[in-house]
Each structure stands twice: as structure tokens, then as C-alpha cells.
Amino acid sequence: MEDYPKTLSEFEFQFGTTKACREYLFRLRWPDGFRCPRCRAAKAWAVTEVLFECAECHYQSSVTAGTIFDRSRIPLTVWFRVIWWITSQKTGASALGLKRILGFGSYETAWTCLHKLRRAMVRSGRDRLAGIIEVDETYIGGEKPGKRGRGAAGKALVIIAAQRDGKRIGRIRLCQVQDASGPNLMRAIQKAIEPGNVIITDGWQGYNGVKALGYTHEIVREDADVGDSLLPLCHRVAALLKRWLAGTHQGAVSHEHLDYYLDEYTFRFNRRTSQYRGKLFYRLLEQAVATAPSTYATIIQHARGPKSANHHI
Fold first, then answer.
1. pLDDT per position as a tens digit, 122-147
2. 261-284: per-residue pLDDT in tens?
3. Which of 101-110, 167-176, 183-192 comes out lowest in average pLDDT?
4. What does the pLDDT read at residue 304?
5. Helix (H) or strand (E) holding 51
6. Closest to 29 (Cα-Cα) out of 87, 86, 69
7. Which of 119, 133, 138, 148 is nearest to 259 (CA)?
8. How far is CA 168 from the centre of its chain?
9. pLDDT 10s digits, 84-125
10. Which of the residue ranges 84-93, 206-215, 246-255, 280-289 would you say has the lowest mean pLDDT?
11. Which residue from 312, 306, 300 is spatially nearest to 115, judged by alpha carbons?
12. What is the band of 81 on the pLDDT scale with cuts at 50, 70, 90?
């Protein structure tokens, strides 16, 4: 049964102590009771307030071990406040805003915290889209000069898959690709959409292989190109995505990290009709305990600009 706070006052009452946060994570990580991360045995005893020892293989673990909270210096109560704040922001969260609101000592700490959580925003093995799905591409970073299939220096190409829900947009998937060649488009489509469903595209030759993959392929016009508003759902998603990147992040998103921002936008968009923001809080925590840890050094290893591998949170 899903159990989450519906208001800020409920959140503050429920998660005022580290113990309360730890017990909540325990229920999320092991809803049917403890399972040893090594041998999957169900029996264990408490060694300390934090550690459990498996009765079978004697492996010691904690509720945060192997999750994004593993070895973090940030207290769980602060992590919970971060997640509540992030999921309460309808327009997205920036590292600068997080630093100001929660009083982090450095921008890097806030930035790393956000990126750890962005890695938890995509659930492993999530359901692919089904039904009638529009697919199109958009360029992030400006208009593309030149031909469509060759990519553009300084620009990022993003594939949009938007599910029809009557005349509205249902769920979406976003994926950055190197160019609009057939192999790249087909891989993105297979990852995002369940075979046997209807895919609507324009007449770009890169989509010629859609039918062979087991989809019903409908083409809106043979001579379409990027930027034409022939696929209204995709066009709307592209406009909203660019506005979000420009407004929340002032467009300062490197191509190396764009996929994680796309994951955040998808997470928010697909849950935009949730009655309670607390449900987003619950979902993100649920996925956070199922996501492997990452360090600041691994997060920034492909980032542009100065790097410091000595920062930890």
C-alpha cells in the first residue's frame, strides 16, 4: 500500500528524525521484509541501529547500502527534504535554488545531489509506450543549419515519442541521439515503444525501418523536415521542453548531462496529473533505493569545464 505525506505539515511530522527516514526506506526497499543483497536470504538480525547481518551468508548491509544514499555525508533527513522540495517544484529544480533553500555549503554539493536523484528518475525495466504514438526529432541549442541527417555542431538531437490520449498528450519518452540516421532512430523507438502499436512519423527516410520492427507505421507527409508542425503532440512537447530548459536551467545544460535532464523532464511530465505532490516524492524515493550509487567524480568525468574529483557528498 502506498503511504506518503500529502502536505508539507504531514511531511515534517512524519520525517523529523533519521530513524523515521530509515524505517521508511526499509519499507520501500524491502516491502516483503529484509532480503540479503548478496544471497537473497530473508532472515537477518540487527548488528547495530543501522547494520543488518544475514543469517545465511553473514553479509552485513544497511538500508542505504547500494542505493544513491550509500556513504553519503548528507543526513537522511536532509535527503528527504531535498526530495520533497524537488518533487514539489512543478517547473523543475536547479542547483542554485536548492543551495539557497536548503543552505548547502557549496553549489557543487547541491548540483551533485540533484544529479544523483536524476539518475533515479528512470525506473529500470519501465513499461514502454503503447497505443498510438507520434515520433519526431527536435534540436536542443538552436536551429540546425544544413541537412537533417548529419547532426549539427553545438546542437543536440532529441527523439520525442508522445502517446496520444484522445486529443491530449499521454506519456512521453525522450532520448538524445547522435544523428537522425535509421539505426539511431530504430534503437530509440525500440527502447521507448512496445511492438505491435501504431507509430506516426513524417516522411524522413530514417523511419523507413519502423514497419520491419513490428509496428504499424503511418506517415503524415513524405517531404516533411525538422521543425514542421505535422506532429502536434511532439511539437508541443518540444516547445515545453525547451521552455523548461531555458527557464529552470537558463539553457546551461551540457550535452554530456542532457540525458539526465531529459529523464527529469519525463519523470515530471508523466506525473503532471498526480493529485498529491507527495506521490512524486514516494515514487522518487522508491526508485532511489533501487538505483546504484554514483560519486561526484563519476558524474562529472565527461562534463565540460574545470573538474574536481575530491568533492564528496
1. 877 789 999 999 999 999 875 555 56
2. 899 999 999 998 888 889 999 999
3. 101-110
4. 36
5. strand 51-54
6. 69
7. 119
8. 22
9. 999 988 777 888 889 998 889 899 999 899 999 999 998 777
10. 246-255
11. 300
12. very high
Alpha helices (H) along the chain:
8-14, 18-29, 76-88, 95-102, 107-118, 182-192, 232-249, 258-269, 277-288, 296-300
Give CA–CA dist 35/284, Å, rounded: 21
Measured distance CA(81)–CA(91) in Å, rounded: 18
- Look-up of cell digits 519501465: 126
Residue 93 CB burial class (10 angstroms; 0-12, 13-18, ≥19): buried
32's CB contacts (< 8 A; 6+ apart) are none
> How many C-beta atoms lie closer than 10 Å to residue 98's C-beta?
22
Residue with cell 535532464: 261
Helical (H) or strand (E) element with 31: none
d(CA 313, CA 301): 16
**Residue-range domain boundaries for the chain:** 1-33+66-119+258-313, 132-241
Q: What is the pTM of this model?
A: 0.84
Q: b/e map of 53-92 (b: 16 or more CB within 10 Å)?
A: bbeeeeebbbbbbbbbbeebebebbbbbbbbbbbbebeeb
Query: In the numeric block, which cell numbers belong to residue 163?
Result: 502517446
End-to-end CA distance of the chain: 32
Can you list the alpha helix ranges (DSSP code H) found in 41-94?
A: 76-88
What does the block give as the cell for 142?
Answer: 538552436
